Amino acid sequence: MTTDPLAWFLNRGTGIVLVAVLTGVVVLGIRSAGASAGGRVPAFVIAAVHRNLGVLAVVLLAAHAGAAVVDQYVDIRWWQMFAPWRLSYQPPWLAIGVLGLDVLVIVLATSLVRDRMSHRGWQVVHAMAYPAWILGELHGLGIGTDTHEPWATATYAGTVAVVVASLAARLACTEWLALALERTRR
Amino acid sequence: MTARLEVEWPACRARGLCSELLPELIDLDEWGYPIVLGPVPDSLERSARATVRACPTLALRLVRDPTDEGRPHPDVGGGPAGQMTAR
To answer: Contact B29/B35 with Cβ under 8 angstroms?
Structure first.
């Protein structure tokens, strides 16, 4: 445990980087879900970069949560990284972060044993990455020391815009949307 | 003992990652569905296992066949219809 501000800086630094990296993982995941062979970038490349960036995101997340625990200025215990119980520092915003971490850990765990479980089950759990990303954004916005800094606001706004745009582009490509539009036109 | 790749057709969505990763053994037909070209030689077994892991819908299987040496497999040389094509 330390009161050295380094732990606090590490926590904030890993936090904002995590917003960008996790957004990258989500965007690549959206691209990967629609990718087939024959594109400019091979489908297996998008899938592999998504996977590797996802692992990096979880490592960053461990550093981010670890820095918060190690920092003695705020009283956060090791077990509170996973269980949002009796939190003493900004409980609602911290709890949101803890829940996001829990979900991402489960997403990672199921992806590691993906070939040993049902594909459908893996898909359902993996879809939880979307709410986990939202929880991460909210956590940063609410608890972030630097939230009001222009670079931070730009990061939050930019990452949300990029994910919304990616989802919109993906939905526009699917038959689902085309069929739905056709039904409303009739 | 030979190893061969098998496609689980109900799961296959013709995404083609298998052919991207293992063009030596997997071709794609005109609709994007995989055509397994032959058995897996020992030199390609690691690549074959990586390709199986990479299928987004887990539709590819690597099967070790201790008894079958020369008999052609329904998946080899054809798509979902399982037709044998002259090669």
So the answer is: yes
